[in-house]
Amino acid sequence: MLEVKDLHVSYGGIRALRGVNLEVPDGKIVTLIGANGAGKSTMLRTISGLVKAESGSVLYNGKELIGMPINKILEEGIAMVPEGRRVFTNLTVLENLKIGAYLRNDKAGIQKDIEWVYELFPRLQERSWQMAGTLSGGEQQMLAVGRALMSRPKLMMMDEPSLGLAPLVVKGIFDIIREINRQGVTVLLIEQNANMALKTADLAYVLETGEITLQGSGAELLTNEAIKKAYLGE
Amino acid sequence: MAKTILPYIISGISVGGQYALIAIGYTMVYGILRLINFAHGDVFMVAGLMMVYMAASMPLYIAIPLMIVLTVLLGFLIERVAYRPLRTAPRMSVMISAIGVSYLIQNLALYITGGLNKNYPTIPWISDRVTVFGMETSRVTIITPFLTIILVVLLVQLINHTKIGMAMRAVSLNFETSQLMGIRINNVISATFIIGTFLAAVGSMLFFTNYPGVVPTSGAMPGLKAFVAAVFGGIGSIPGAVIGAFIIGIAESLIKGLDTILIVQGTISEQIGFATFSDAFTFILLIIVLVFKPTGLFGEKTTDKV
Fold first, then answer.
1. Considering only alpha carbons, which residue of chain B is nearest residue A82?
2. B256 in a structural domain
3. Which of A144, B192, B232, B290 is most exposed by smallest CB count within 10 Å?
4. Contacts of B184 in chain A (CB under 8 A)
5. Dist CA A179 CA A181 (whole Å)
6. Positions in chain A whose pLDDT score sits under 70
């Protein structure tokens, strides 16, 4: 279980997170929704070690992650699918998957997981030797997810996986998120596409200007009047 | 006619190979850090000086490997001390730091040598005179291009087919995402400097063998030429730097021999002094490339699909 306690993060004078508390129980899909600039990305970047926290704590199964180097956090089993996919466009699809397993040394296991990812995303197998830069946006998102899975994470964090993708492709991505979760990976999902996210999530948090203003099950928030107005456009 | 030109081409290929070994260091560092490592030419000079001092006090079979190891160590330390602390600073700051390191090394060398020309030791076998195609030259001229190509092929294999090579390519595209993969970018950057200075150390041996000696500014000109070669080939690209270096080496050598060639051909009857312009040619080429094709022959395109 991931527990964030009273987390404060500042960016060049701007207080991006002001005492956030949240929990991500094992085996669940948890989503964090909120408008642009609410601090959602900062949240994930702090957990993954890219951004330094000012105060507060991030515990993963009781271990403090704050102050841990990025590669150690990855070794703890937390992988991230960054915003905007960020696949390595100058590497082939296969190499992108291999680099996702950079910290692993079990060749046989890596090979097995490549096949597992190809099973989840048959399109990637067809394009295995292509440069990742030649893939479409949806395929790049699949690759970014596959790459994160290659580290065999227990918790996968995703930053706006639906950004800039066609509705049909978005649906495919969310199907995959559910499938990955069914196979035992906990998911922490950040979304602006609140509708999709709340329908998929077991647990949801609403982040507004650096503070959690609402929380509940995905179904509860879907019917919440304030949420409907602010995020679902109804 | 062909007999007149051939020696110039052969020596041009050889000089080109030496430039290539330096140019790779520029282009690799640029590829990863977007930094033009101005100190690289001076590290090349230090490799020459170290060889001078060490060959005087120990046998060559110890001096050569030791010189290479110490040069690599110097390249590694420069990155650690002068560039790494500036990792998050604006790029201009790092570049100024590089210029500072360059002057520091040159002045230290001036202090140690007293500015005197230091005779480069004769390395047996490679300094031997040989005759090829009816022309007499030192063996190093013949060996250089082959050695260069072998080293380049090994390097390209390393970059395309090993884990560290894959990490280098990833880091060159995006620091942050590479870190999310668990790559420690500082280690990858160190590896890049180690490879670059290793090649420069080998290059210095081939280069100075053909020259009378080493002075503190000996690294400046070959360093600049190699830099132009890297820009010409498309900075960031290894094959580009190598091809650029060979083109510059050959062109320079042909210009040096242009008087003789034209006299033999009967176009002119006395020396005009084209040779004076051989250095100028390189820099004119730089200006032309920057004006008409700033990304060079194999430069990275900026139209990456995101």
1. B177
2. yes
3. B290
4. 69, 71
5. 5
6. 234
